[in-house]
From TrEMBL, chain A:
<keyword id="KW-0813">Transport</keyword>
<dbReference type="InterPro" id="IPR001851">
    <property type="entry name" value="ABC_transp_permease"/>
</dbReference>
<keyword id="KW-1133">Transmembrane helix</keyword>
<protein>
    <recommendedName>
        <fullName>Autoinducer 2 import system permease protein LsrC</fullName>
    </recommendedName>
</protein>
<feature type="transmembrane region" description="Helical">
    <location>
        <begin position="137"/>
        <end position="155"/>
    </location>
</feature>
<keyword id="KW-0997">Cell inner membrane</keyword>
<feature type="transmembrane region" description="Helical">
    <location>
        <begin position="27"/>
        <end position="44"/>
    </location>
</feature>
<keyword id="KW-0472">Membrane</keyword>
<keyword id="KW-1003">Cell membrane</keyword>
TrEMBL record, chain B:
<dbReference type="InterPro" id="IPR050555">
    <property type="entry name" value="Bact_Solute-Bind_Prot2"/>
</dbReference>
<dbReference type="InterPro" id="IPR013459">
    <property type="entry name" value="RhaS"/>
</dbReference>
<feature type="signal peptide">
    <location>
        <begin position="1"/>
        <end position="23"/>
    </location>
</feature>
<dbReference type="Pfam" id="PF13407">
    <property type="entry name" value="Peripla_BP_4"/>
</dbReference>
<dbReference type="InterPro" id="IPR028082">
    <property type="entry name" value="Peripla_BP_I"/>
</dbReference>
<protein>
    <submittedName>
        <fullName>Rhamnose ABC transporter substrate-binding protein</fullName>
    </submittedName>
</protein>
<dbReference type="InterPro" id="IPR025997">
    <property type="entry name" value="SBP_2_dom"/>
</dbReference>
<feature type="domain" description="Periplasmic binding protein">
    <location>
        <begin position="48"/>
        <end position="302"/>
    </location>
</feature>
<keyword id="KW-0732">Signal</keyword>
Length: 354, 346
């Protein structure tokens, strides 16, 4: 890292600024988000200043934020979890069925059940991937269909309706503390906990090491199997949590719940600067990516852009993010080579420059 | 009880197939077979209901209506059906019913083509075939009980929204998928109706929730954000209206923006009771089954043949006349509101 900094200071100012900007992807994405919110509010002030607008701004992305955190952890270890949409749906339906069976169950316990059930489904992924040594994309694509299949045969054409949930649970979807919706607080707490762990804990840093170079991590003696397993259990548990949140927010659960949301979660992580090749990115970046993705989807209709174009805009965002990644990593590669050459050519001069 | 019934009839179906294969004989031979519920002499008409699948609250309701009608005219009622609504799953049940020599079969077809051969065989064996809810090709059945016409559905939705917003103001439509045939046909008719009879109602937007709870929910939020002066939303899809009601019930727009469309009572009960939704429509599946049963009886007794212009009486529902292509129309869609919603469970 220090070598890179030395090299960067040797570059022209504009280039340095660009590198700095691209390096802090989180700040870039957050800035884009602020601009979009500002412009949309300018167009229709209810977008931010009405109580509905303020609440929707905070509550709509919550579900995807939770999923994006789990997905980010998995992608950082150079894997991917495509089964989260099915896990979410299955857990949401389970939540409904649990309430139909025991209407008086305390709400926090239902959240625990959701987390545990999701973790179990995640464990299946983790075991197959970590021990079976099969690429995660294949395993989780398989479990995506398996879990969805179980869901379909369990639910059939049946659905859970809002009237099946106790009202204290239904209210959770809109309840707010100091104008911040509870659901959003849950998502922020998840982000904070997982982000703190990844950033500060030794085992948290090992996720990055594994994603950067699994073989090197193994040679170094890191518990690769255990960490990958943990990443998938975490992703599954968070998808389970998102399932309970889904039930609370939407009130209706049919067998289509969560269909296709896994790709949004991957998209959110990528937009937020989590490199799909692993080892790079932060949980907070993925979260802000999720907020951007959802907010753009909500802003486009206000701008009068038709339904049909909205997905294209999201696609363009993902392509843009990946292009930015590629440009950045190529630049970094070049800088590293330059730094190495510089260090070999004149070690004393560089030393004084720093 | 149901499960045992199904198992039994599945077993019977296997037996029938096996016996047909072994003896390679026609259906006339089997008339005197295992007909436990048969016997068309006098008023004892046996009617078997075959819904798309069992355990579906919609068909539970329609078949309960059928049962009530059959019991009212003193016939024998039975219900059989597959677990899942797949195209060919109904064939074995049709074969069994024909084998048992039931007088009439009331079917909601999973596929307009796939069950045609089986129905033809049953009709050759003397069973009258009435379809309801979902038709087969017209050649394969005697009568189709149509729950509603596109015109009727479009009109009731426009009428309801006009009543609820005082016949003037901005409205929007929350539809299913952009390529959904039914919804698009209804939307076209609604647009014509609005232009002709409701000049003060301005349809400002049509959005598509893809019959997905989450998408429909988010599109409703988007509609309210992009059209601050919106006064009403029509959602001609059961998934859409429930999701829109869920969003409205938790927003400032509750009670200010009217919502109506096609929905089922179980999905909408909560929102009708909390005042989010005043009235929505659908046909009444109970009446649909009830009418189908009486139509079946009229066919069996020879009161009608299924020709255009034939008319018959369906108990409490009154008189009905057979229309074009052997179709009987149940009537205008049924409106659900807080006064009657608790009478339904589907």
């Amino acid at each position: 890292m220090s070598q890179l900094d030395i090299a960067a200071s040797a570059q022209p100012r504009l280039q340095r600024a660009l590198v700095g900007l691209a390096k802090s992807r989180e700040i870039t994405v957050a800035a884009v988000l602020v601009v979009i919110i500002a412009l949309t509010t300018f167009k229709s002030d209810g977008f931010l200043f009405s109580s509905d607008g303020w609440r929707n701004l905070l509550v709509s992305p919550a579900l995807l934020m939770i999923l994006a955190v789990g997905q980010a952890v998995v992608i950082i270890t150079r894997n991917v979890d495509l089964s989260v949409g099915s896990t979410l749906g299955l857990t949401a339906y389970l939540t409904g069925k649990v309430f139909i069976q025991w209407p008086d169950l305390p709400v926090p316990l239902v959240f625990v059940i959701g987390l545990a059930f999701g973790a179990l489904l995640g464990l299946v992924n983790g075991v197959l991937i970590a021990f079976g040594r099969v690429p995660a994309i294949v395993i989780t694509l398989g479990t995506l269909y398996v879990y969805r299949g179980i869901f379909l045969s369990w639910a059939g054409s049946d659905r859970v309706n809002a009237s099946d949930f106790p009202s204290s649970f239904n209210e959770l979807g809109t309840k707010a503390i100091l104008t911040i919706p509870v659901v959003t607080i849950i998502a922020l707490v998840v982000m904070g906990l997982v982000g703190y762990y990844l950033y500060t804990a030794r085992s948290g840093r090992e996720f990055y090491a594994i994603g950067s170079d699994e073989d090197a991590a193994k040679l170094y003696g890191l518990p690769v199997t255990r960490r990958v397993l943990l990443a998938f259990v975490l992703s599954g548990a968070l998808a389970g949590l998102a399932g309970v949140v889904y039930a609370a927010r939407y009130g209706t659960v049919s067998s289509g719940a969560g269909l296709g949301i896994e790709l949004q979660a991957v998209g959110a992580a990528v937009i937020g600067g989590v490199a799909i090749a692993g080892g790079v990115g932060t949980v907070w970046g993925a979260t802000i990516g999720a907020v951007l993705l959802i907010t753009i989807n909500r802003a486009l209709p206000v701008w009068g852009i038709s339904d049909f174009w909205q997905q294209a805009v999201v696609g363009a965002l993902i392509l843009g993010a990946i292009t930015l990644d590629r440009l950045y990593s190529r630049r970094q590669e070049r800088l590293l080579i330059a730094a190495r050459d510089l260090a070999h050519a004149a070690p004393t001069k560089v030393g004084t420059a720093s | 009880m149901k499960i045992r019934n199904r198992r039994l009839s599945a077993l019977a179906a296997v037996t029938v197939v096996a016996s047909l294969a072994l003896t390679a004989c026609g259906s006339s031979d089997s008339d005197g077979g295992s007909s436990s519920s048969g016997g068309s002499d006098g008023g004892n008409v046996s009617v078997t209901f075959l819904p798309k699948n069992l355990g579906n609250p919609y068909f539970d309701t329609s078949d309960a209506g059928g049962k009530e009608a059959v019991e009212a005219f003193g016939g024998t009622y039975d219900e059989v059906g597959p677990d899942t609504a797949t195209p060919d799953a109904q064939v074995s049940y049709i074969n069994t019913a024909a084998q048992q020599g039931v007088n009439a079969l009331v079917v909601s077809a999973n596929d307009p083509e796939a069950i045609c051969d089986a129905l033809d065989e049953a009709r050759d064996a003397g069973t009258k075939v009435v379809t309801f809810d979902s038709d087969t090709n017209p050649e394969c059945r005697d009568l189709f009980i149509n729950q509603a016409t596109a015109d009727g559905i479009a009109k009731v939705e426009v009428d309801m929204i006009a009543e609820q917003i005082g016949d003037s103001g901005q409205i929007a439509i929350l539809s299913a998928a952009a390529n959904a045939t039914n919804q698009n046909a209804w939307i076209e008719l609604m647009k014509k109706d609005l232009a002709a009879d409701h000049p003060n109602i301005d349809l400002v937007d049509v959005v598509y929730g893809d019959d997905d709870d989450q998408t429909s929910f988010d599109k409703t939020a988007g509609l309210l954000e992009s059209h601050p002066d919106l006064k009403g939303i029509i959602s001609p899809t059961t998934v859409g209206i429930a999701a829109a009601a869920r969003y409205l019930s938790t927003s400032d727009a509750k009670g200010k923006v009217a919502l109506t469309g096609l929905g089922t009572p179980n999905q909408m009960r909560e929102y009708v009771k909390d005042g989010t939704v005043t009235e929505f429509a659908l046909w009444n599946p109970h009446d649909l089954g009830y009418l189908a049963a009486y139509a079946a009886q009229a066919l069996v007794n020879g009161d009608i043949t299924g020709a255009e212009g034939d008319s018959f009486t369906a108990g409490d529902l009154g008189d009905f006349t057979v229309g074009k292509d052997g179709t009987v129309l149940l009537g205008d869609p049924y409106r659900f509101n807080k006064d009657n919603i608790d009478d339904f469970d589907f």
